Amino acid sequence: MAELRVGLIGLGMMGRNHARAIREVEGLELVAVGDAYGDPHGAAGGLPLCGSIDELIEQGLDLAVCAVPTGLHESVGLALAAAGVHTLVEKPIADTVDAGLNLVDAFESAGLVGAVGHIERFNPALQSLRSRIAAGDLGEVYQIATRRQGPFPARIADVGVVKDLGTHDIDLTSWLAQSPFASVSARTSTRSGRPHEDMVTASCQLENGVITSHLVNWLSPMKERLTVVTGEKGAFVADTLTADLTFYENGTFTTEWEAVSNFRGVSEGNITRLALTKREPLRSELEAFRDAALGVADNTVTMHEGLNTLRVAEAIIEAARDGVVRDL
């Protein structure tokens, strides 16, 4: 496989991970990195360290990964599109819908691959879960509930928890159910003294009728990444921190305990922890980006999809601000 020349812009925590993973993916050659603030994690190694996106582009790139702060996604992405470079932009696609739309237009008009780094789609537990839902293992899907909470990450300065963390859950929920969001309602809280929200609870409905709930915050001392999908045959629980997937089957046995049998819901059945092949999501995401650039296959999260996710995120923020249900 011929090696594609890759440039990386943004050398924070996520940029450091990208630098390592790019070096590990067959067919990719990391040729230069860039960050106006230097290289705090030593990601460059012996590669050229560029101080601007223009300097990085001058290295002669086929592909680029944009891991700069969200507020810079638009300007960096537009420069890469103008230079004819296929680009993977870290999520969210941009800080505003208008900025995201500019990126979509730029990459489409140039005939370039523009992808967004919604990495949860490449988590083995969620990939297996989506396949099982599509195969009918749950029957009709009733509800998708997510919990994503943990301590505040010092890397975030320009957006709140909805656009930073919540976009993971918006994207993965729509992707799992294969249906867009129809309406959203939410409550947010600001407790850390920053200008943006640091806690949200959202209640939503998809176009296919599935109801969803999302608890996201930066105010918890314990880290949690759970997705629970409940349907007519039971429930799947995916833990994306460990890439574990567990199936809780509806029971078929008669309950003889009167106090319990008075509840006319489902009964507990077998619980199965499913064995999965666990590949690193970041490597899988970069392989999908490589294949899209080569025209082999396109399993990336497109900029159109990233823009739709950002629209839902902004609707959640507006719904919380105004205390109303927002239709999409």
From TrEMBL:
The UniProt keyword set, sorted, is: NAD
Gene Ontology terms, MF aspect: nucleotide binding
Query: Which InterPro entries is this protein grouped with?
Result: Gfo/Idh/MocA-like_OxRdtase_N, Gfo/Idh/MocA_Oxidoreductases, GFO_IDH_MocA-like_dom, NAD(P)-bd_dom_sf
Coiled coil: which residue ranges?
none
List, alphabetically, the Gene3D superfamilies matched: Dihydrodipicolinate Reductase, domain 2, NAD(P)-binding Rossmann-like Domain
Q: Which part of the chain is the GFO/IDH/MocA-like oxidoreductase domain? A: 127-236
Q: Where is the Gfo/Idh/MocA-like oxidoreductase N-terminal domain?
A: 4-118
Protein name, entry field? Gfo/Idh/MocA family oxidoreductase
What organism, scientifically named, is this protein from?
Arthrobacter echini
